[in-house]
Specification:
6 strands, mainly beta, globular, Ubiquitin-like (UB roll), 9% helix, two-stranded antiparallel ribbon
């Protein structure tokens, strides 16, 4: 059985959230072992808030929950990929957009 390596980053692993239907990357959060286990038990993505030092299930107040379709780990077992279906209005980012990745960065010589 594959084990996620929570020890490498002091008990947390990055969790990449991807739309299961189209592959769009929606957000990245961090999971502790407890958050990972709760995600598997409930079927909804749960993270560990580094600022509040507690578990939180995405969408518990907004209704835009992330229903887990599949989960996988990378080759080092230190990152989790959660493929999800977004419930509710489909908004994932706290700014009101579907994805948190909407701000372009300059490449190379661009300013």
């Amino acid at each position: 059985m594959v084990e996620v390596d929570f020890e490498k980053m002091d008990g947390l692993v990055p969790a990449v959230v991807q739309d299961a239907a189209n592959g769009e990357v929606l957000m990245v959060g961090f999971m502790s072992r407890d958050a990972y286990e709760q995600t598997l038990q409930t079927g909804y993505v749960t993270f560990f808030s580094r600022t509040r030092q507690q578990l939180w299930t995405k969408g518990e107040t907004s209704g835009n929950r992330l229903r887990l379709i599949t989960a996988a780990t990378d080759c080092d077992s230190d990152t989790i990929l959660c493929r999800v279906e977004v419930e509710g209005a489909g908004v994932v980012c706290h700014t009101g957009t579907r994805s948190c990745f909407t701000t372009p960065l300059p490449l190379g010589g661009e300013s």
